[in-house]
Design goal:
Blueprint (H helix, E strand, L loop, with lengths): L1 H7 L4 H6 L6 H16 L5 E3 L5 E6 L8 H15 L3 H14 L7 E8 L8 H15 L4 E5 L5 H6 L3 E7 L6 E7 L3
Parallel strand pairs: 3-4
Antiparallel strand pairs: 1-2, 2-3, 4-6, 5-6
Helix pairs in contact: 1-3, 3-4, 4-5
């Protein structure tokens, strides 16, 4: 899973800004996405297509995105990987947190990624549709942040609506905050 997300987010506008060194980005992404995969495993809401071409990572309602142990590793890890740039990434992470809705329980799509060799085949969106069907059966809403605005229309096609956005430190790029009521 970690490797798939590492490859999927390599050129993502937001996460390539956060991890700007292309020669070390794979190593940095492995460490970074590894925290999120590790924390999500106990929830049993990580899904992958049969061929391993796409994966999704969901955080169930009321659960933390990172375990307390992994949360404690975030700042030291980013300082180690990014040096002084880590301060800007901390600001970015604060913007993710402050824009995340807190009023209504919901499923949170932390990661949806498609392996570069499988892009354009509908695998990621097919997986997302299957996930949303399970969530709809529970009558629950869903939330995500679109870190690559080129994907916004894909999320809109499956019922997400933009409820906000925020900019990275420096003003660009922006991240869309998207909500989907149960259907």
């Amino acid at each position: 899973m970690t490797e798939l997300f590492t490859l999927a987010f390599y050129d993502d506008p937001t996460w390539s800004w956060a991890f700007p060194d292309p020669e070390r980005r794979m190593e940095h992404h492995r460490a970074w996405w590894g925290l999120y995969v590790h924390s999500a495993l106990p929830y049993e809401w990580i899904w992958v297509t049969e061929d391993g071409g796409a994966a999704s990572l969901w955080v169930p309602p009321g659960k933390p995105e990172l375990s307390a142990e992994d949360e404690a590793r975030v700042r030291p890890l980013l300082r180690e990987l990014l040096g002084s740039h880590a301060e800007k990434v901390f600001t970015l992470l604060d913007r993710f947190d402050s824009n995340h809705p807190t009023g209504e329980p919901h499923y949170y799509l932390g990661l949806l990624g498609t392996h570069p060799d499988h892009r354009g085949q509908g695998k990621g969106m097919g997986l997302l549709a299957a996930n949303l069907s399970r969530i709809d059966e529970q009558g629950m809403p869903a939330y995500l942040e679109s870190s690559n605005r080129a994907n916004d229309h894909r999320y809109q096609r499956v019922g997400f609506v933009q409820i906000g956005e925020f900019a990275l430190p420096g003003g660009e790029p922006t991240v869309a905050c998207m909500w989907r009521d149960p259907q």
